[in-house]
Amino acid sequence: MQDVYKPPIASSIELQEFHTADYIKFLQRITPHNFQDVARYLERFHVGRPQDDCPVFEGLFDYCRRYTGASIGGARMLMNAKKISLSIGLVASITRKRERHPVFATPTISS
Questions:
Q1: 92-100 — which CB contacts under 8 Å span 24+ positions?
Q2: Across the strands, what pairs with 76?
Q3: Biggest distance spanned by C-alpha atoms of the chain
Q4: SS in 3 state form for the chain?
């Protein structure tokens, strides 16, 4: 039998376990409407430039919080073996194909 769990949304504090506070603040502020205003950060964080695999889109920070929350939630449930023995993250990657090096998204499966 399969159960589907609604994952938690990661907090900014949880995101800072993996990324710097500057990067989190950047993700909170960036939108398709203002990314030219923060151009100096685009190169620093490899976001929003044609050569990067991380486009800027409306709701980017919320998207990051949701997929990170799903990953953290799945890991926490796996740590408690009484709840689950397998976690599958079906969050699709937002990377796009590069000219010379295509990048393909695959689901994350942990057990």
A1: 94/54, 94/55, 94/57, 94/63, 95/53, 95/54, 96/53, 96/55, 98/53
A2: none
A3: 50
A4: CCCCCCCCCCCHHHHCCCCCHHHHHHHHHCCCCCHHHHHHHHHHHCCCCCCCCCCCCCCHHHHHHHHHHHHHHHHHHHHCCCCCCCEEECCCCCCCCCCCCCCCCCCEEEC
100: which 2 tokens?
A: 């010379």
Q: What is the pLDDT along the chain (111 residues), one digit of tens a residue?
A: 667 778 889 998 999 988 899 999 999 999 989 978 888 888 888 888 777 778 888 998 998 898 888 888 888 888 876 667 777 766 655 544 444 333 334 444 444
Tell me the residue length of the chain.
111
CB 51 within 8 A of CB 43: no
